[in-house]
Amino acid sequence: MTGSTVFAAIDIGASSGRVVAGIRDGQGFRTDIVHRFPNGVRQADGHLRWNLTSLFAEVQKGLRALTARYPDVISIGVDTWAVDYGLLDAAGRLIAEPVAYRDSRTDAVIAEVDAVLGRERQYEISGLQFLPFNTLYQLAAERTAAHWTQVAHAVLLPDLIAYWLTGELRTEATNASTTGLFDARSRSWSAEAFDALGLPPDLFPALIRPGETVGTITDEIAVRTGLPATTAVVAVGTHDTASAVVAVPALDREFAYVSSGTWSLVGLELDEPVITTDTRAANFTNEGGVDGRVRFLRNVGGLWLLQESLRQWSSDGAEQDLSDLLAKAGELPDGGPVIDIDDPSFIAPDDMPARIQAACRDSSQRVPQTRAEIVRCVVDSLAVGYARTVAEGARLAGRTVSAIHIVGGGCQNVLLCRLTADLSGLPVLAGPVEATALGNVMVQARAAGAITGDLEALRAVERAGLTLREYQPSSDRSGALSSKAR
User: Higher model confidence: residue 132 or residue 480?
Assistant: First the structure.
């Protein structure tokens, strides 16, 4: 292929979605965000649910806009967040809008699941850190619902969107690896886990790997979007973090990454999982990556705390500008309160500033009073979490880390990047912001023959077209994790 080629990336996160044109040209890759749309949970039928039907309407709107701007789209790739799924009946119809991972329904079944498949055994199989919303807990809760008898398939959310685009049911492997039902070593479904939970072995559609073609779009989608009916939907790293890690613009393998968004995924890229007593105790996870790589990481609280704080202040009638608050927070002295950013009390939506203040009070620290102080507390706590997790991951994996790459929305947060460099004692390279969409596009481009090589080759091409911002640790604070942080 010569000249520029265009790929469509559907990239949906827990707070917003994008339809992005990814352009491969002589300088590398560039992105054009054609359509943005909001996302969020809502109360319905006694649960927090996603409105996936509405999201799919936005996807089609975005594809129409993309086609109008770039008529010669090669293919489409879809990525979303992990663990959540939709349930289909035998006719392929969505039974109900998907329940969100922030819903509390799993609280009642965790002990029941652990009794039949203990957490130690769960970890030996899946290599996943314990999280109360892991898919196996969600499905255990689902089995008590009246509609369970109608269920023919559970379909992870990016695969559900791909199904609506193509009519083909598949389960992409990197996202399957987040369910707790996937064997991290054999990289296939675990019959033991399905049997222990009493789940049908064919509950999920057949596996597909990144770079393989799901199918071509249906005639109906072609009419609605203006795309040719021959347009392929290609499996990418459909778990958004898997795509984001593809686009980490590292020069070598001695890097740690932070995919910083609503959640922060902090870890290393390995060739094989690390499943030991120590990694389980440290709550590290082994998720699948593109090209069979392993994302050895830990979920760390993310920008959700800032997003929810802004939402709360806005609902109180005090609209706040985050840039202004971050500037004021950066002027505050070091040494303020630090909360456990991973505490489950921060998972659900509600009055986040009050919960942050309560956490400081309960840990006998100074309670932040102003909005800037609350923002600084969150950013300090995130930076502590990032630095601590990188250090612990490197120790557990026996790896040397020479730099931390922060990608996603958090890479624009200068204060967060600076503090992470200071606390870790490592240089931080910030960017790209749209790492997930870029990684999505890069896998499509390789599948189409627009680029060749392994992930290192893809990253080299990507980096040629990027300008990264670098933060060196301050000499007076280098590696200055407090005893509280450790």
Answer: 132
